[in-house]
Amino acid sequence: SGESPNPLLYDKDMGGIVSCGCLFDSCQGKCTPHCNNAGPRGGGAGCPNLGAGDFAAGLDFGNGYYNDHHFHYGYHLYAAAVLARFRPSWAKKHRGQIMLLVRDVANPSKQDKYFPQFRHMDFYAGHSWAGGIFRSFANGRNQESTSEAVNCWYAIALLGDALGDQQLKTIGMTLLASEVHGAQTYWQLIRHQTGYDPIFETNGVTGILWSNLAQFQTWFGLYEWAVNGIQMLPFTPISEYLLRPEWVRQQMDSFGKACEKSPICTGDGWSPLVCMALSIVDQEKGLKCAEKLPKKVFSDQTAEGNGNSWTNTLHFIQSRPATL
User: Residue ranges of the chain with pLDDT lower than 50?
Assistant: First the structure.
């Protein structure tokens, strides 16, 4: 509708869809929260994401500098795929706008002069990279959440299926297959079956993979529960293809105990992920785990709770096999 206070724009310099940015202001709790910037009509200063320097590069997780586009747009495309399935008229009306997001992250055509081919995917490495263009790092390119990358390619495949577009579905399935294989090779570390150093391999999971470095951490902390959880969320039907029971079973003890000991894990809404992961290897235990969760973990005021729900948690758990 064009009414968003943080609209998406086309960047003709780099060929992509970026967010304008929002300088959030609540007047220290005394006024209705709003974006305290002029937006696209405010000239150069109206869109803070498009500015220079560290501040601009950090807004919207670096969206203006092409950080994490496949992570973030994947959620929008998943929602669009669901709407396209159940409201075809909506999809027909908005197909052009939807395809702009697809072209930003998964454009297959050299003839498309507005977007680069496959912005994030590295077909040689067999997985995507999330890092944008703000600066060069000594260790090269990087990616943290493979499960969010998988979510994007899955969303594109679903969208193609809903629209009856076989080529789009094939693109999504190809990217999906590659990303899952990469995730299971370089991030989901089944002990004694990887090429990693034995000491690092004992972690069972990679938090951030760089061109020449693997780290057991996330961009937002060194928490063990976060390193595991960020390689699992969001939980959707494709999770059963991505998350191998053998790997989940290996990680559950350390993942669960780390979350239980951390008030941040529950306070920020990450604890449902433990229950959902547990249900992959033991559906009954996963359900009992979920039933004990305080409802505050699903609050839209929490970092992870605002992206998951009690309904989604129960649906995922109840749709698991009884035993594996």
Answer: none
